[in-house]
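Predict structure. Chain length: 191.
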Amino acid sequence: IERVLTPQYSVWVFCVGLCGGDPSALLGALYHFQRNLIFPRPDNSNPLPIRKGQLVTVDVSREARPEGVPGQLVAAYFPPTTSKHVLAFWHGNADQIGNVGDHLGHVLQRNQGWGFFAVEYPGYALCRGGEPTEETIVWAAERMLKHLHVKLEVPWETTVAFGQSIGGAVALRAAHDNLVGSCVLLSSFES
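Prediction complete.
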């Protein structure tokens, strides 16, 4: 049988070779580095600024919060112009709100009149000092939705959770917890 060396197969062979062929060593390495595999952060040395929307910062330094949530949470906000709806957006892995969030928010506000609220993950780009884990991301998402509803006065019924890729998990959680009126997933996952 002829084997085709795909990039995935080559990486697998390299990892097995690195662990000396010991499957338990490979599993141990995967377990140890799982957070970095699931939540690879963009290069934080030069985060993209919010150029078109409003930079929203929320001080949570005096609030009880999970370890790994920084003292300041960050979002990009585009108020609705002709619509009552606001998309609360969570981006895909290794992206940042200064990239897709700032551009998509501007386009949706300009072309459709929709509001847009792009929430950054702890430890990503402009939300420095945190650690992206399931617990910190969910806590930050809930806290930023509270800010959207209470301080920016956007009703939960007109808030649409919008998750791209791994951000779909955050959007689904917000919908499950009845923090939003509806939910949209873009190129999300099955499991």
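Summary: The chain has a mean pLDDT of 86.
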